[in-house]
């Protein structure tokens, strides 16, 4: 396909993706209040904040004249990107699929179908940990002071937390995918397990926006279990590959040597 046709196809796919995001952003715009209520539950449920705050949700506030409008637009766009993810991901897939071989297409579809639920599980765990993380962090506020929490900063904190959990849960999917394409074996994965576990705890401590031991442990422990699970599954797949190769080798007929010429003398 010529370059101009590639650019035209890319523009068409991008336009469709933006339209889908815009349509679902309208959902976020009209359901703005319920979405905000759901996001503020971790703070609203904390008795410590409710006692000291000037509203039922403590000291959450929006600053500036344009602050409420900017916040509503931000929540609407984030909602649009999340809800329209299957549609704009399909547009991305439709753009790159013509350049892939059949085997690459099968691997890509398998990766997406497995990676999506793992990402959703990570996001769900992050949202479950969110109230505990908020409680721990706000617990450092001195009793003589009020903690004024800007809602836009709180929203960024929530997004970072759940995205870190969601992306981190892709670790086993990536490891098994590398095994399937033959880049790394199960034994090679499990051999440096001590360093791998240390690396998991180190990177979770660096990536989690809270930095508290509770949130770090809530992410590092499931990741460690998923790491060992990915290693075990990779070793099973390696064993199956080995058995399949040996079976094929046994079924191949041995080459029959040509008969020796008859000596007529």
UniProtKB/TrEMBL annotation:
PANTHER family: SEC-INDEPENDENT PROTEIN TRANSLOCASE PROTEIN TATC, SEC-INDEPENDENT PROTEIN TRANSLOCASE PROTEIN TATC, CHLOROPLASTIC-RELATED
Membrane topology: Multi-pass membrane protein
Pfam families according to UniProt: TatC
GO molecular function, one term: proton motive force dependent protein transmembrane transporter activity
Gene Ontology cellular component annotations, sorted alphabetically: TAT protein transport complex
Residues spanning the membrane: 14-32, 75-97, 109-137, 157-181, 193-210, 216-237
InterPro entries: Sec-indep_translocase_CS, TatC
Subcellular location, record wording: Membrane
GO BP, sorted A to Z: intracellular protein transmembrane transport; protein transport by the Tat complex
The protein, known as: Unannotated protein
Keywords: Membrane, Transmembrane, Transmembrane helix
Native source organism of the sequence: freshwater metagenome
């Amino acid at each position: 396909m010529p370059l101009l046709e590639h650019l035209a196809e890319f523009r068409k796919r991008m336009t469709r993706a933006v339209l889908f995001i815009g349509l679902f952003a309208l959902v976020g715009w009209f359901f703005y209040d319920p979405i905000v209520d759901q996001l503020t539950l971790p703070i609203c449920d904390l008795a410590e904040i409710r006692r000291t705050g000037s509203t039922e949700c403590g000291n959450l506030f929006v600053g500036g004249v344009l602050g409420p409008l900017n916040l509503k637009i931000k929540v609407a766009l984030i909602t649009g990107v999340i809800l329209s993810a299957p549609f704009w991901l399909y547009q991305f897939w439709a753009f790159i699929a013509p350049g892939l071989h059949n085997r690459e297409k099968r691997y890509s579809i398998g990766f997406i179908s497995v990676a999506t639920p793992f990402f959703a599980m990570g996001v769900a765990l992050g949202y479950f940990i969110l109230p505990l993380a908020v409680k721990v962090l706000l617990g450092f506020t001195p009793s003589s002071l009020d903690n004024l929490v800007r809602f836009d900063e709180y929203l960024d904190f929530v997004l970072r937390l759940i995205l870190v959990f969601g992306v981190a849960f892709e670790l086993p999917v990536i490891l098994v995918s590398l095994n399937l394409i033959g880049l790394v074996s199960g034994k090679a994965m499990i051999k440096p397990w001590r360093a791998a576990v240390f690396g998991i705890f180190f990177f979770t401590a660096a990536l989690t926006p809270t930095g508290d031991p509770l949130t770090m442990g809530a992410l590092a422990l499931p990741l460690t279990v998923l790491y060992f699970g990915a290693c075990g599954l990779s070793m099973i797949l390696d064993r199956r590959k080995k058995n399949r190769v040996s079976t094929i080798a046994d079924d191949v007929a041995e080459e029959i040597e040509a008969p020796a010429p008859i000596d007529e003398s």
